[in-house]
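Milestone M4 deliverable, item 7.
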Amino acid sequence: MSSTTPILLNSQIIGRAHYAARALLDRELSRTGTTFHQSMALNAAAAEGGTAETGRIVELLTANLKIDGTTARDTVAELLATELFEPLEPLPGQGPRVALTEAGRAEQSRLASVATEFGPLVYGGIPEADLAVAGRVLTEVIARANAAYARTADRY
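Output delivered:
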């Protein structure tokens, strides 16, 4: 293959890009013992305004990370045990809820600042038009992969 042959997007390239960027996050997670699943649950709660139904966090984790409900619920339980989440009384007609504690907000904020710091190092200098094309293509890949995942659920 010559150096002028374009590299076509495929699962290997997507995976390598994911793990290269994820290594930056994993190093930061190891500093406090927060797991990747826990960081995603902290982000889910923050995205919901800091308070969310436990079921909503489980739904987001299972949909986005492709983990089972038990693992997602265990992740919420871990955050409750480490006091990064606190339990709240359910609202009428709703299930159990959790809220970010002060420590949970601090950890989520710290991890978000790491992403802000590394973003320019990873994406800086790439033309905006290229990032837009990559964003559109990867969004389509995600949609197609999710559809295939749903269609093949009965196989496993």
